[in-house]
Design goal:
single chain; 416 residues; mainly alpha; 2 domains; two-stranded antiparallel sheet; 15 helices
Length: 416
């Protein structure tokens, strides 16, 4: 169908070119790895969904199984809408990457449409989870029902992305001051970023110290300032405290005979400890993204120095977590306590080192590094649910795989 306006054709060509360029940047090896990951995730969803659906179809019939599949697909679509909306809200508040859109001589509504397209593209990753759920219902639900559910999922996925972007746009432009006759998007993008320039700072002091320690001290000073890194560090501190406090919580469930069964808080404390390590890793990635590429690459430091400065934070956080749990879980028998502390220490170290590796090798793209970190951790959790201890193997493999790229940091380019 022919384009209605030249601007429509221009933006369609721009979006097609962006898709082609991003696909061309994925080399063959990475494509094979992504296909293997997608197959593993799809197999996990199939394995986790097939048995409950079979029991449901046997007990209540194919209609109940179809409703369950539809509910799961609807949840995936809502998650996709949330991803699109949150990304659209973030890029409008912080300013989208790319050209200076306010300098492009096109109407603001076209820029708003393109930015919403960028945000909706993030939500399409959720569509990769749907085949595992649909295939799990094959043989339990009539095939033509599954076809209708798949078509409905595609439609709801697209509409959820549009609705999420609309909500994100409304939240970003709500309360924006300025001249009312100016388009809200222009007023939003022209809004100056929040600055801490009013904060009183002491004059710079130059001191001699090892390079890794200077970088470590720079990260500390950056975290103490009112920046994104300080906000990111608050969450792992809160979760770490909660993980220690979980040992003192009474956790009880009602048994079929009416008796209350007291559960060990070990599982809940361990889960909160893993969340603490994950959010601390996200803080490390935020630190990596705050460094200006040209400045950092112009300093006389190597990858070993940079890695040691960030790994020092990992070691410090892991020791604090292990120490807190050692005090809170002192009621455990010594062998069980030692095993528990080893698991927490090794898990937090592995997660933190993985974040350090991604933050260095993917610098300055902290957004991609965070995405790969969460993907690797999600696969580790999925592998642990399928086969015990397989998650540890998956996590360790990710750490060594990311470490293989560290020597390439010496010729890393900003837009690589």
């Amino acid at each position: 169908m022919a384009s209605s306006t030249p601007l429509d054709a221009a933006f369609q060509e721009l979006e097609r070119s962006l898709v082609r360029r991003r696909l061309s940047e994925i080399d063959l090896k990475l494509r094979v790895e992504l296909m293997a990951l997608a197959t593993l995730i799809g197999g996990f969803l199939f394995w986790q969904t097939r048995v409950p659906l079979d029991a449901l179809a046997t007990a209540d019939g194919p209609v109940a199984a179809a409703k369950s599949v539809g509910a799961m697909l609807g949840f995936l679509a809502l998650a996709a809408g949330w991803l699109a909306g949150s990304h659209h809200l973030a890029q409008l508040r912080t300013g989208p990457t790319g050209p200076a859109w306010l300098g492009v001589p096109v109407p603001p509504q076209w820029i708003a449409r393109h930015l919403a397209w960028e945000a909706r593209a993030r939500a399409l990753w959720v569509a990769g989870l749907a085949p595992g759920v649909i295939l799990a219902a094959v043989g339990l639900v009539p095939t033509w029902w599954l076809g209708l559910l798949a078509a409905a999922f595609v439609w709801i996925l697209l509409e959820a992305g549009r609705l999420g972007c609309a909500i994100g746009y409304w939240l970003a432009t709500r309360g924006i001051g300025g001249e009312p006759r100016i388009h809200p998007l222009v007023r939003t993008l022209a809004k100056p970023p929040r600055s801490d320039s009013a904060t009183r700072r002491s004059s710079a002091r130059w001191r001699r110290m090892p390079r890794w320690r200077a970088l470590w001290h720079k990260d500390l000073m950056l975290t103490l300032r009112p920046t994104l890194t300080r906000r990111r560090l608050a969450l792992p501190i809160v979760l770490g405290v909660l993980s220690v406090m979980a040992w003192g919580l009474p956790i009880e469930l009602a048994a079929p005979d009416g008796q209350l069964v007291r559960l060990s808080p070990r599982l809940f404390a361990f889960a909160l400890a893993l969340l603490t390590a994950t959010t601390l890793a996200e803080w490390l990635l935020a630190l990596a993204g705050m460094d200006p590429f040209e400045v950092l690459r112009g300093l006389p430091i190597g990858v070993t120095t940079l890695w040691l400065s960030r790994a020092a934070w990992v070691a410090l956080g892991s020791m604090a977590l292990v120490f807190g749990h050692a005090l809170a879980a002192s009621s455990l028998p010594p062998p069980a306590l030692q095993l528990y502390l080893i698991w927490i220490g090794c898990a937090s170290l592995a997660i933190g080192v993985l974040a350090v590796n991604y933050g260095i090798t993917l610098f300055p793209r902290a957004d991609i590094a965070e995405r790969l970190l969460l993907l690797a951790l999600g696969l580790s959790v999925a592998a642990s649910l399928m086969i015990p201890l397989l998650g540890w193997l998956t996590l360790i493999t990710a750490v060594f795989h990311s470490a293989r790229r560290l020597p390439r940091w010496s010729w890393l380019e900003e837009h690589s």
